[in-house]
Amino acid sequence: MTPRKTDQREGGNVARREAAAAGPGSRALVVDLIRSAGPISRVELVEQTGLTQPTISNIVRRLIADGVVRETGETVATGGKPRALLVINSQALFGVGMHLGPDTITAVATNARGGTVGHELVARPADHDPSVLADTLIGLYRSLTQGLDLDPHTIAGLTVVGPGPVDVARGRLLGPGEHGEQAGFDLGAALSRALAIPALVDNDATAAAIGEFWGRQVSRDRTFGCLYLGAGIGSGVVLDGALHRGASSNSGEIGHNTVVRDGAPCVCGNRGCLERYASPSVLVDRARATPGLAERLEIAAEDGYGHAFDTLARAAVYGDADASALIEESARWLADAAVTLANLWDLDTLVLAGPGFAVAGSIYVREIRERLADRAFARRLHPVAVDLSSNPRDSAAIGGAALILQGSVAPGHGPQVAMRA
Amino acid sequence: MTPRKTDQREGGNVARREAAAAGPGSRALVVDLIRSAGPISRVELVEQTGLTQPTISNIVRRLIADGVVRETGETVATGGKPRALLVINSQALFGVGMHLGPDTITAVATNARGGTVGHELVARPADHDPSVLADTLIGLYRSLTQGLDLDPHTIAGLTVVGPGPVDVARGRLLGPGEHGEQAGFDLGAALSRALAIPALVDNDATAAAIGEFWGRQVSRDRTFGCLYLGAGIGSGVVLDGALHRGASSNSGEIGHNTVVRDGAPCVCGNRGCLERYASPSVLVDRARATPGLAERLEIAAEDGYGHAFDTLARAAVYGDADASALIEESARWLADAAVTLANLWDLDTLVLAGPGFAVAGSIYVREIRERLADRAFARRLHPVAVDLSSNPRDSAAIGGAALILQGSVAPGHGPQVAMRA
């Protein structure tokens, strides 16, 4: 007569390394629960983690000593002893994230809850020498953190994110948009050495996924996906509170799915890739090829594609027929991609992030919601909630900051980071 | 100067519920290590799990008492105290899996290491009444287990697998190939009640993935995918030794990816799905539409598609030009699908399983290996190893047996199963 219980989510249900009950995995779990469910009491942490009361007390004591967590000062009356409530100590630790766009670099600093405390946008150097890029990033880091008057001891480090492929272990951005010189240059080590902080490189879409997961305080029992529209099209998935990385941290490359069989060759080596039909640069090229459109929208020949795409997207929002046709075409492609992501991961939550969604995000959200409701494979069992990032333009940089914070406040959970000289 | 270590595989690195150090997750971890790395000593288990020596001793003692694990009798000389070696006690526990094909039902019994000890194949009843199907499965279970003279106390239970969608929690197969009557019928409960054993239903491709992972003794640090060609096309992914399930156990549905935009409507609700271009039934229809081919290959009008596809595949292997053209066309579609899987999950290992690969598997393996080597997104960072199941026809049924064994020997790892009346 026992009702059968089926765990719907085996993936990640078992730690690879569980160590002692108070080991790094447990600390990460507690930090993640306080982040997503806080303010929360120790008693609730015991209930939700399955850890013992002494173990929770020990972990919380250490987190408070480390400044990661604080008591709110409020208590919950329960009839018995009042329970103190715990939250992430947002001002004790900061992370820095930088996103390399094709023409610009976005830098953000966030607090330990993922809230943005500082932001800078600079032009990307035209020089492809990687040490020139490194110098720019070093200057940007100093300008940002000194401008905010952040105590260097409170900065967890820096993550630089860009299009994949990435070689996370060797600090290299190998992305198709990056120039050959980058491939042999350990950008992570160069930045870590110059700034004396932990520094990582990572994929922009992956970073955006963990940033959105943190920033939106998503519960770790969701199957959470992020569809990213930047220079290219990518995605990231968070399972049990941690990014799915795969064999080499290059998962999520939905932009390089073949959507037109034997279609045009892509820089990635595949053919007929989604990016060749739906990415902002392709749409801008098409807008320029549409007679009279570029002139009418005042898209200049020298405009970078990011700026030109914003102009096109704005015209679509305002109802220009030619612009709408192009953006809606792109939205239909991305809706197919959303169904692919939902069907392969069995997602219940999807967030749209990246600069491509900054202006005409509502057009994409509408199309993707409708498509998932009509066509997602498991739609008879559960819906897929679709939402737009509250800051799509900065989401990759914010995610970079989240990645370095995650590794710092919850070791064993995010990437393990240490300084390298 | 500390070298930075980046954990390449955060997904699943942290348990949702870690409980005490000797909790269910740790038992699952130890069982999985003994399964994949055994014969293995207690000292090596301490090293590989990060658990303490007393914890490992306790877990192993209980596993031996439960009959799940045994000592080989051999020891390793280390200079100090000789170390006893542990293996899974393959004869102490058996699982039964049944695969519902369109025309046939395959039943297998496996030992605790996933080795097949019994096999039966019967015709599927033409009657669509789900209680008729349940009666057939009950009879098949009794015939199989009594024929093998298995002690009922050593049988962990039964998993019935078929095409998705599945409602694992409510014991229902909702698959597009299943008839409407199935949707309201709790097959799992009916079987559990009649046979007085734990009984599950699950997706065939998902089951095949965990079966291949177990049977091949794959290490849990691989990012392991299985591409399944049965009545439809599916996939499953194993991360850190456990299936990725997603929100409702309906992940991996690569057969319902749109591969031809605005293509023909599919029974799943989507359009232009991969299954409509590359599944065995579609190829058989095409073979029948090719002038003279069905006659030449002696594919009769009344042949079920499974048998007809085997005939077609055999002709392709023997070099019939028309048959080769059809099979190679299907292989090219599946190679695109393999790139999609590799790119989204960043796989390092892919196994091809399912009856569709039973005859012409080598044609598919060749095409998929070449495509991944040429076009996988992360190919500059690592290869994707591609291999054919050693028993593609039975892999879903074997996987069903693995699922029920996993839940039994390693609770907290596989689905939690209990009997229902």
TrEMBL record, chains A, B:
<protein>
    <submittedName>
        <fullName>ROK family transcriptional regulator</fullName>
    </submittedName>
</protein>
<comment type="similarity">
    <text>Belongs to the ROK (NagC/XylR) family.</text>
</comment>
<dbReference type="InterPro" id="IPR043129">
    <property type="entry name" value="ATPase_NBD"/>
</dbReference>
<dbReference type="Pfam" id="PF00480">
    <property type="entry name" value="ROK"/>
</dbReference>
<dbReference type="InterPro" id="IPR036390">
    <property type="entry name" value="WH_DNA-bd_sf"/>
</dbReference>
<feature type="compositionally biased region" description="Basic and acidic residues">
    <location>
        <begin position="1"/>
        <end position="19"/>
    </location>
</feature>
<dbReference type="InterPro" id="IPR049874">
    <property type="entry name" value="ROK_cs"/>
</dbReference>
<feature type="region of interest" description="Disordered">
    <location>
        <begin position="1"/>
        <end position="21"/>
    </location>
</feature>
<dbReference type="Pfam" id="PF13412">
    <property type="entry name" value="HTH_24"/>
</dbReference>
<dbReference type="InterPro" id="IPR000600">
    <property type="entry name" value="ROK"/>
</dbReference>
<dbReference type="InterPro" id="IPR036388">
    <property type="entry name" value="WH-like_DNA-bd_sf"/>
</dbReference>
